[in-house]
Amino acid sequence: MDQERWSEVDAFVSERLGLEDETLAAALAAAEEAGLPAIQVSPPQGRLLQMLVRMQGARRVLEFGTLGGYSTIWMARALPADGRLISLEASAEYAAVARANLDRAGVGERVEIRVGPALEALPTLEEQGAGPFDLVFIDADKVNTPNYFAWAVDHARPGALIVADNVVRGGTLAEADSEDPATQAQRRLHDEIAADSRLLATTIQTVGGKSYDGFTLVWLQDG
Ligand SMILES: C[S@@+](CC[C@H](N)C(=O)[O-])C[C@H]1O[C@@H](n2cnc3c(N)ncnc32)[C@H](O)[C@@H]1O
Predict the structure, then answer these.
(1) Cα–Cα distance, 89 to 64 (Å, whole number)
(2) Which of 20, 48, 53, 67 for a ligand 1 pocket mutation test, highest count of atoms within 8 Å of Cβ?
(3) How many angstroms separate the alpha carbon of residue 223 from the centre of ligand 1?
(4) Residue 81, burial from CB neighbour count under 10 angstroms (0-12, 13-18, 19+)
(5) Does the Cβ of 39 fall within 6 Å of ligand 1?
(6) Ligand 1 pocket member 145 (CB < 6 A)
(7) 157-212 pLDDT, tens per residue?
(8) Which of 89, 97, 135, 211 to mutate for ligand 1's pocket (most ligand atoms within 8 Å of CB)?
């Protein structure tokens, strides 16, 4: 089994389940045209995010890491008309591409992009009483995933879902002595989750067009 086969299966699933449409393809094309790195979620992962937002009945969603707005479009599509998604993005250039993509996708009114390092945006969000969030998607700078996660737990409602992407990191998650700071951050994330009895969580390993990685899914128990 190799990368080529994983990509073929992703392509099969995307085609057979109709996961991509003109709007999503246009968003990817615009991101490529603008020189953004192709590090967005895959179509099957985007559909999973859309399903989670819908199954949660989410009205308030927080995203760390907008890039060109690809995952944002998937999630925003699952929101009701009065639903709101706040997405935090460090790069003003990426945020501008995302804004155009979101508007073209017809979900622009539901999405606010805040530009700047996410950690700096959080105190303002708190002052403004943002949340409590129904779903949080963490997909920004991976060394800060545990910091974003801790904030998310404090600002999510009971019953909320938190999804953290790219936690398996080619399997290095299992290496206690890894010298990769991003890997050590994902190990700390798991320690934090394990220490909080309110949380029910798992980590799912994935292969696909994005190589070998995985995501952590955390539910803030409501009973
Ligand atoms: C993996 S990409 C996000 C992909 C996007 N969620 C998608 O699937 O379409 C990570 C994004 O996080 C942004 N980022 C990196 N460091 C950040 C920080 N400190 N605060 C906010 N965003 C950051 C990067 O500029 C990049 O756009």
Answers:
(1) 7
(2) 67
(3) 33
(4) exposed
(5) yes
(6) no
(7) 999 999 999 999 999 999 999 999 999 999 999 999 999 999 999 999 999 887 99
(8) 89
* C-alpha dist (Å) from residue 96 to 71, 79, 86, 136: 15, 22, 15, 22
Instruction: Tell me the C-alpha distance between 58 and 76, whole Å.
Output: 10
What residues pair up with 163 in beta bridges, in sequence order? 137, 217
Question: What spatial distance separates the first Cα and last Cα of the chain, rounded to whole Å?
Answer: 42
- Atom of ligand 1 minimally distant from the CA of 91: 25
Q: Which tokens sit at 154?
A: 């404090």
Atom of ligand 1 nearest to the CA of 144: 19
1: confidence class by pLDDT, cuts 50, 70, 90: low
Residue 125, Ramachandran bin (φ over 0: left; ψ between -120 and 50: alpha; else beta): alpha
Structure tokens at 134: 């129904």
| Residue 112: exposure state from Cβ atoms within 10 A (0-12, 13-18, ≥19) | middle
CB 180 near ligand 1, within 6 Å: no
Stated pTM of the model: 0.98
